[in-house]
């Protein structure tokens, strides 16, 4: 499986993806699921992928190929993030149609894609492209999307995240969301790819790979366990009607 | 949907179930999913159910009917918790076979059942009865089972729970697991039914119903949100390589 999480906040974007893929429990590999595109100073586009790896690689491959061969439309010539999401949705539909015209059968090869970024002259956006190629857009009410194994890491986002949250707080919140998922589900695994984009910077972030022995991630994971254990103990004792 | 959680710990059992059922989003009802049986001073047996409501009610109905008509075997005459789990598995198989002999088709009407309790002369046990009627038993390594919408509430159990945890700490841990689930998934809803059984007491607990306006649950839910928010802020600031 996969876990990808993307936050679109007042100050920028926080994107984190895991890298574990599996075809059965005995065929586990590491594949990057966070992909960046763009032109420094002009546009930044990131894709996070979950689902069938051949399909997501084909979508990324077609997008990259169009850039290499300067075929129109491509990620460097579309005008807005909406057009980026449309291009990705169309590319996904084409990849699936190449396998079969049966829409029901297509779902066996499908994927979900988070698309985030900003193009000069347009707002910073975050889209969730569904397996059918249509998509929804993040808002101030719902400032984050998740794809893949999303449930374990949802409670911390639902409790703590808000649109105006500073980027460093939001990053820690997202990292804890990943840590919770990693501990509860072996199909999501290290290393993680994380990046922070500052709104209106139009700078393509290098991003960071978080591996097994990453000191900062290990430290916050450990401290978070202690926070939870201490927090539980500090809760008031159950009332008498619990028969303790 | 449903969320039921059962902990089998050194000192006793902690069982919590929600009560929300839904047949479509416009048909939401309250049904008890935590059922107790037994004879005070001799045996305590609890069932927690998820899945098809007609099936779970039929299983409970058959078990209760056998008690009323003193048909053998019944929950008050079997000798061990293993035999309890076997009786429940068989009852479930019978209920499903009454609908159809097609095992694949049966899965459309199926359910999961957690069975916990203790009978004089036997160990306290916790079983997870699968939709097929077979079952597994909790151990000191894996002291808890969940059925239904289990993922949201799993991280806190995975981080904090251990076999020798005192019952009052474990109860708070399970309540927070429910609170996390309630906040992230509308298919799990209040009121909750909770009970604590003390090992070797052979006393059937009254249990407690936790409703919308329960002061203690509201208080720990609010305090937990603060714990998480403060805990996130107290994590060390992200390192420079995150480009913040």
List the helices and strands and how they pair.
Two copies of one chain form a homodimer.
Chain A: E1 3-9, E2 12-17, E3 20-22, E4 28-30, E5 34-39, E6 43-51, H1 53-68, H2 81-99, H3 103-106, E7 111-119, E8 125-129, E9 135-137, E10 144-148, H4 154-160, H5 167-184, E11 192-198, E12 208-210, H6 215-234
Antiparallel strand pairs in A: 1-2, 1-10, 2-11, 3-4, 5-6, 6-7, 7-8, 8-9, 11-12
Helix pairs in contact in A: 1-2, 4-5, 5-6
Protein name (chains A, B): Peptidase
Pfam family, one (chains A, B): Proteasome
InterPro entries (chains A, B): Ntn_hydrolases_N, Proteasome_sua/b, UCP009120_prtse
CATH topology of chain A: Glutamine Phosphoribosylpyrophosphate, subunit 1, domain 1
Greatest contact between two chains = A-B, 51 and 52 residues
The helix/strand order of chain A is EEEEEEHHHEEEEHHEEH
Main sheet: strands, sense, barrel of chain A: 5 strands, antiparallel
Helical proportion of chain A? Answer: 25-40%
Globally, the shape of chain A reads globular
Given helix and strand content, the structural type of chain A is alpha+beta
- List unreliable stretches of 5+ residues of chain A: none
User: Which value, in Å, is the CA radius of gyration of chain A?
Assistant: 19 Å
Count the beta strands of chain A: 12
CATH superfamily of chain A: Aminohydrolase, N-terminal nucleophile (Ntn) domain
Question: How many separate helices of chain A?
Answer: 6
Oligomer kind? homodimer
Output the CATH class name of chain A.
Alpha Beta
CATH architecture of chain A: 4-Layer Sandwich
- The residue-averaged pLDDT of chain A reads 96
Protein name (chains A, B): Peptidase
């Amino acid at each position: 499986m996969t876990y990808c999480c993307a936050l679109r906040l007042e100050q920028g974007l926080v994107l984190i993806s895991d890298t574990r893929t599996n075809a059965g429990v005995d065929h586990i590999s590491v594949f990057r699921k966070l992909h960046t595109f763009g032109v420094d100073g002009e546009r930044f586009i990131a894709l996070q992928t979950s689902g069938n790896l051949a399909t997501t690689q084909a979508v990324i491959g077609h997008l990259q190929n169009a850039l290499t061969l300067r075929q129109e439309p491509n990620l460097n010539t579309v005008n807005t993030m909406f057009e980026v999401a449309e291009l990705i949705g169309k590319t996904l539909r084409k990849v699936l149609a190449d396998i079969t015209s049966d829409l029901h059968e297509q779902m066996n090869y499908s994927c979900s894609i988070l698309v985030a970024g900003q193009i000069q002259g347009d707002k910073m956006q975050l889209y969730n492209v569904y397996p059918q190629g249509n998509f929804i857009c993040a808002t101030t009410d719902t400032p984050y999307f998740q794809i893949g194994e999303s449930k374990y890491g949802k409670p911390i986002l639902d409790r703590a995240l808000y649109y105006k949250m500073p980027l460093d707080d939001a990053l820690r919140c997202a990292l804890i969301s990943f840590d919770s998922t990693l501990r509860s589900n072996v199909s999501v695994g290290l290393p993680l790819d994380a990046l922070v984009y500052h709104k209106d910077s139009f700078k393509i972030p290098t991003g960071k790979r978080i591996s097994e022995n990453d000191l900062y991630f290990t430290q916050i994971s450990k401290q978070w366990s202690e926070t939870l254990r201490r927090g539980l103990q500090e809760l008031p004792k159950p009332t008498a009607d619990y028969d303790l």
